[in-house]
Request: fold
Amino acid sequence: MLKVGLTGSIAVGKSHVLALLGERGCMILDADHIAHDAILPPSEAYRELVEAFGPGILGAGGRIERARLGAIVFADAEKRARLNAIVHPRVRETIEQSLAAFAATNPGGIAVVDAALIIEAGMREAFDRLIVVYCDPQEQRRRVMARDRISAQEAERRIGAQLSSDQKRRYADYEIDTTDAYEATRAQVIKTYQQLQTLARGS
Reply:
């Protein structure tokens, strides 16, 4: 089985690229979705987050409001590290279990894991290949502002909380630029998938 990491900075289109790879037949895992499930009540991670950041992160029904939590951790590197220390081990464990199960039944398959912090978390070596998704910086800022309904200043702060696209691209085996129209991105994904297929068949 070929293990592929998919990463990139905030709001560059990783989920879109992941979905396109899924359409081609890859097994796909979205670390963000796994993290969301990991912090649902009454999980241990949920309890630890409420203890660490207080009841102010809770919304209707007692669930953690990710927007409230995000506003806290994006402004404070120490708190962001605390969040990661609580959530990342759970996410990594789930990913490892899913990959092992897939490998057992699909030894010649391709598994793609979408995770924003693959490089920052020191997980690059866990993958056979790494795809880095990026887009024009101005387009990235526009997407963050529209998605999270925040100011340009806050968008820049959130973008700056992670490694830049240029820094991440240094680690890439493949790069996909999502700046332009849908079809341009799709063409890049198909080309990358074909190359991954060749590798998977030879592995």
The first helix runs from residue 14 to 23. The chain has one domain: 2-202.
